[in-house]
Task: structure prediction
Amino acid sequence: MLEINHLKAAYGQVQVLHGIELKVPKGQVVTLIGSNGAGKTTTMRAISGMLKPTGGSILLGGKSIAGLPAHRIARIGLAHSPEGRRVFPTQTVRDNLLLGAFTRLTFGGRPRGDIRGDLDRALDLFPRLRERQFQLAGTLSGGEQQMLAMARALMLNPDVLLLDEPSMGLAPILVEEVFHIIGRLKEQGMTMLLVEQFAAAALAVADYGYVLENGRIAVHGPAEQLRNDPKVRAAYLGIAH
Result:
């Protein structure tokens, strides 16, 4: 479904990604873990078109999307819930969600489909948002804004969903709720690439994992295998050998 080969990316003269490779098969959850500054968010930005790669290929459903602008990649079927939420604070929750379906409403976009039905499904998945759908997004708590960012991405009805640090800044009980929702999306067959600071939680919900170190894939394998790898446990799960 999503295939990255020899991906390189930089900010100015600073090379961040040094030819990484990863695959996200249809219907699976793949997680990308690593320390701060390893290049995880840069990878997500390069895939979704927020940052133009300096080399390599990105295939979505067999179609090349490397270097395309973000709005075209969204129209092809990739949604990105970014680090830091980035909701539209002066718009209502409901309007934020409808903006997530914008590319389905415009000429050349994805099939329109049942947008009202998708809105109801998103609100069913995130009951707090249903309660607050006519509230301004800027008045929501951090956890509610994170749920809104995820729900807004789902309104694209994407083939692949990128989730970048969905638990960042959240209280433990909300982290648990967010991962419960990710688990429900997995049960529904959603294809996801997950970047997450809580490596243990990410590997618990994922099918496959990649460890990124200094812009390179250091190790990868089935999530259960990585959970039991002594080096991964010591470095990212806080568990001694």
The mean pLDDT is 91. The beta strands are 2-11, 14-24, 29-33, 55-60, 63-64, 78-81, 160-164, 191-195, 208-213, 216-222. The chain has one domain: 2-236.
